[in-house]
Amino acid sequence: MDDRQWTGSTYGTAWMHRNLIRLLRYVDVRFIYLFAELFVVPVCLLINKSRKTAFCYFRQRLGYGYFHALWAVYVNHCQFAKTVIDKFAMYAGKKFQIEFVGQEIFTELVNKEEGFILLSSHMGNYEMGGYALAWDEKPIHALVYAHEKASVMASRNAVFGKNHVYMIVMGEDMKYLLEISEALRKGGIVSFPADRHMGDAKCWECTFLGKKAKFPQGPFRVATMYGLNVLAVNVMKTGAKKYTFYVERLRYDSFLPKKEQLGQLIEAYVAELEKRIHQYPTQWYNFFDFWQ
């Protein structure tokens, strides 16, 4: 992976994805976990630059000792492998247990007429939320990057379409902006990944884990533009076949000037992200130089 910019794409070919789904229809995920931990992850650590950026994250940002940071890099990559395997297991029809923390916050907003915003991060396995967030009355429109593999997009659409979760593809033609506006106008839910920026997109710089880092302004601007409620959502792996779904409302003062609203909302999101990182340090999957 390029150490300067995140690309927004799942590794592998369509052939690999199809065969992994077929395998997972018949094999327990725990056997695939073991294979990945013993053979796949060590090879990835040898050939990929991700080991360096992950080591800096644990050593410099979280203050781990040298050998503790080395071990955490291995565990981090193993956890990432498991979430990828779980994603394809879900495409294969496997079921996972989901426990909610803060479900009442989500339910309260679902029962209102107006739409609202979900802000996710590259922690845990956000796609697992598609199991729990199934509402006939208020569909979810998830923003995804145009660079994602066609095979992954097809699997997502097949699984999540049944749960009224639909994809909005963020391409260069800006058509996705109209789709976001239309979804919110109809009282729907729009979900954004908010801890990655692509290329030259407008960013907001703030302190994150003790050092200045850049976050994309786009998701937060949409919220403040329409004066919408905003929830931070993280779905963390807490067992071989279990995930815990954390929902937290992000507060900002809609009577302030727009720039100050934007700053408040981003700071609230970053504070929530830091909280989850300290709770699950090996489940934030940052494999490029985030603090460049």
What does it look like?
- The structure is a single chain.
- The protein is α/β, with parallel strands linked by helices.
- The protein is globular.
- The two termini are 15 Å apart.
- The longest helix is centred in the first third of the chain and has 26 residues, at 66-91.
- Helix 2 crosses helix 4 (66-91) and helix 3 (50-61) packs across helix 4.
- The model is unreliable at 1-8 (pLDDT under 50).
- The protein folds into two domains: 14-91, no CATH class; 97-283, no CATH class.
- The protein has helices at 14-24, 29-47, 50-61, 66-91, 103-110, 129-132, 150-160, 175-185, 218-226, 258-279; strands at 97-101, 116-120, 140-145, 165-170, 189-193, 203-208, 211-216, 230-239, 242-250.
Tag the structure with descriptive keywords.
alpha/beta, disordered N terminus, 292 residues, globular, 20% strand, 2 domains, 9 strands, 46% helix
Brief summary:
The chain is α/β, with parallel strands linked by helices and 292 residues long. Helix content is 46%, strand content 20%.
Average pLDDT, all residues = 88
Estimate percent helicity. Answer: 40-55%
Q: Could you say which structural class the secondary elements and strand pairing correspond to?
A: alpha/beta
- The share of residues in extended strands comes to 15-25%
Question: What Rg is obtained from the alpha carbons, in whole angstroms?
Answer: 19 Å
Judging from the principal axes of the Cα atoms, what is the shape?
A: globular
Question: Largest beta sheet, briefly?
Answer: 7 strands, mixed
Secondary-structure element series: HHHHEHEHEHEHEEEHEEH
How many structural domains are formed by the residues? 2
Contiguous uncertain segments of 5+ residues: 1-8
Across the major sheet, the strand order is: 1-9-8-2-5-3-4
Kindly report how far apart the N and C termini lie: 15 Å
Continuous helix count:
10
- Give the beta-strand count: 9
